[in-house]
Amino acid sequence: MTELYLQGAELKRRFRALDALLVRHQALWRPRPFVELKLPWEAEHPELAAWLRARSLEEAESAHNQPELLPAPGVFSVLAGETAALAQVGALPSATLPDAPPRLNVDVPGRKWQQIEAFASHLGFRQPVAHWLDWCSGKGHLGRRLLQPGQQLTCFEHDPALVAAGQQLSEHHKLQAVHCQQDVLAEPLPLAVFHTPVALHACGDLHVRLLKRAAAARCASLAVAPCCYNRTGTSPYAGLSEAGRASTLLLNLDDLGLPLSETVTAGARVRLQRDRSMARRLGFDLWQRQARGVDEYLPTPSLPVAWLDKPFADYCMELALMRGLEGLPAGDWAHFEQAGRQRLAEVRNLELVRNLFRRPLELWLVLDRALYLQERDYQVRVGTFCPASLTPRNLMIVAESVPACG
Question: Which residues contact 168 (CB under 8 A, 6 or more apart)?
Answer without folding.
Answer: none
